[in-house]
Specification:
There is one protein chain. The chain has 405 residues and is α+β, with helices and mostly antiparallel strands. It contains 13 helices and 14 strands. The protein has two domains: 182 residues, no CATH class; 176 residues, no CATH class. The chain is 56% helix and 20% strand. α9 crosses α11 and α9 runs parallel beside α12.
C-alpha cells in the first residue's frame, strides 16, 4: 500500500507544474527517440547489407586478378588477367576444403534478339556457378560440364535481360546474338535484385567461360574465380592456402606485392558494414549526449523542487517521516519523470523510423531488445540524476526546514 501512496504523491507533485514537467521530460524524449530511430535505421541498413551479401551464396571465396608492374607502369586490381586456368586447376587439386570452383570471365557487350537489343554484362562461368551462388532458375536448365568443355553456344539469362529482349514471351529455346554470335537460351534466372555495390544482378548473361574465351572475347587468362568452401570455419584456412599456393605458382617473393587478391564472404560483409557502423556510432553518440542533457535537466528540476518544498519536507519530518521516506519520495518522482519521458521517447523513435521507412524508403528494423534497453536506461538516468536531490532533501534538519520561508 505504501508504494501506491508514494506514487500518488509523486504524480500530484509532477502535475503541480505541468509545463515545467513537460520541458524537463523533453530532453529525455528527444534522447531516447534519437537512440531508437538511430538504432532502427542502423539495424535496417545492416540487415539489408547482410541480405545482399547472402545473395553471393554460402561460404564463398573470391579470387581476383591483381596489380602488375612492367617497365615502370603499374596497374591496380583487375587491371590485368594474372590468373590462369592452371591456377584454378591447382586450387581444385591442392586445396581440399574448396568443394566447388567456377572460373570467371567478365565482359560487357551489346546483345540482340529479333528487333530488341540491350547492353549487358556477359559472365563466362563454369557449370557449378549457380550452385555456388545458390541461385535457382525460374525456367529452363543450366548449361552442363559438356557444354563448358565443348565451348557450346548456350546461355542462361537474368530476369532483366529476359524482360528487355523478350517482353511478354518465354525466352527459353530462343536465340540471342552476342557480338553477332548466336547463343541458345537454356534458362532464365530467378530475380536477385541489387548487389552490395548497387549493381543489378539480374542484368546478366551467363555463358560457359570457354565460350567467352574462344568464341567472343579471346584471351587465355581469368579476371576472377568464385568458389565455395566446405564450411564457414574453413574460410580462413582456404584463404591462407590459396594465398600461399598462388604466391608459389606466380613466383612472388616478399616484399613483392601479390598480383591477386583473395576475399572471403565474411570480409566482404565486414567492409560493407564498416561505413554504416561508423555513421551509426556517431549518431548514437549524439543521442547519448541528448540523454545526458535530459538527465542533467532532471537533476536541476529536482533540486529546484527540493528548495521549493523545504517547508513541506519539514512538516512531514515533524509528523514522523524518516529521512528514508523523504529520499524514496523524491527519488520516485525523478524515476517517474524519466520513465514517462523514456516511454514517450520510445514511441517517438518508433514513429519517426516508420515515417522515414515509408517516405524515404530506408530500411528500418526496430529491435525489442533495444526498446527494452532504452526504457531501462531512461529509468537508470532518473535514479542516477535524481539521487543527489533526493539525498539532499532527506538530510534536511526538520527545525531549519520549518523555519524556511
Amino acid at each position: 500500500m505504501k508504494i501506491f501512496i508514494v506514487l500518488k504523491i509523486a504524480f500530484l507533485a509532477l502535475m503541480r507544474n505541468k509545463m515545467r514537467t513537460a520541458l524537463t521530460m523533453l530532453g529525455l524524449i528527444i534522447g531516447v527517440g534519437a537512440v531508437i530511430a538511430t538504432v532502427s535505421l542502423g539495424d535496417g541498413a545492416k540487415s539489408q547489407v547482410e541480405a545482399q551479401i547472402a545473395t553471393l551464396g554460402q561460404n564463398v571465396v573470391l579470387v581476383f586478378s591483381g596489380s602488375w608492374t612492367r617497365g615502370g607502369a603499374r596497374g591496380g586490381w583487375g587491371a590485368a588477367g594474372t590468373l590462369t586456368l592452371e591456377d584454378a586447376l591447382s586450387i581444385q587439386r591442392e586445396v581440399p576444403d574448396v568443394v566447388l570452383l567456377s572460373q570467371e570471365c567478365r565482359n560487357s557487350a551489346q546483345i540482340a534478339a529479333g528487333n530488341e537489343n540491350w547492353y549487358t554484362t556477359i559472365l563466362g562461368e563454369a557449370e557449378c556457378y549457380l550452385q555456388i551462388r545458390q541461385w535457382p532458375l525460374e525456367d529452363g536448365t543450366m548449361f552442363s560440364a559438356m557444354d563448358v568443355r565443348s565451348a557450346a553456344k548456350v546461355a542462361v539469362i537474368g530476369k532483366t535481360v529476359a524482360d528487355k529482349l523478350f517482353p511478354g514471351s518465354n525466352p527459353v529455346g530462343q536465340v540471342i546474338r552476342v557480338k553477332n554470335v548466336p547463343f541458345l537460351v537454356m534458362g532464365v534466372l530467378i530475380p536477385k535484385g541489387l548487389s552490395v555495390r548497387g549493381d543489378d544482378q539480374d542484368d546478366v548473361v551467363l555463358i560457359p567461360y570457354t565460350s567467352s574465351m574462344k568464341r567472343l572475347f579471346g584471351g587465355t587468362t581469368l579476371r576472377s574465380m568464385i568458389m565455395e568452401a566446405r564450411t564457414t570455419k574453413a574460410l580462413a584456412t582456404v584463404q591462407l592456402q590459396i594465398n600461399n599456393l598462388l604466391r608459389q605458382r606466380h613466383r612472388i617473393i616478399p616484399p613483392a606485392d601479390d598480383d591477386f587478391t583473395v576475399r572471403t564472404q565474411e570480409e566482404i560483409a565486414q567492409m560493407a558494414n564498416g561505413a554504416s557502423d561508423t555513421i551509426r556510432s556517431l549518431l548514437f553518440a549524439v543521442a547519448c549526449v541528448s540523454l545526458l542533457v535530459g538527465g542533467i535537466g532532471i537533476m536541476n528540476i529536482m533540486l529546484v523542487s527540493v528548495t521549493e518544498r523545504t517547508r513541506e519536507i519539514g512538516i512531514r519530518m515533524a509528523v514522523g517521516a524518516h529521512g528514508s521516506d523523504i529520499l524514496m519520495q523524491f527519488l520516485t518522482e525523478a524515476v517517474s519523470l524519466s520513465i514517462l519521458g523514456g516511454g514517450l521517447g520510445i514511441a517517438m523513435g518508433v514513429i519517426c523510423s516508420r515515417i522515414m521507412a515509408n517516405y524515404k524508403h530506408w530500411p528500418v528494423l526496430t529491435s525489442p531488445g533495444w526498446i527494452a534497453a532504452a526504457f531501462s536506461f531512461s529509468a537508470l538516468v532518473g535514479i542516477v540524476f535524481g539521487f543527489y536531490p533526493a539525498f539532499k532533501a532527506s538530510r534536511l534538519d526538520p527545525i531549519d526546514a520549518l523555519r524556511y520561508e
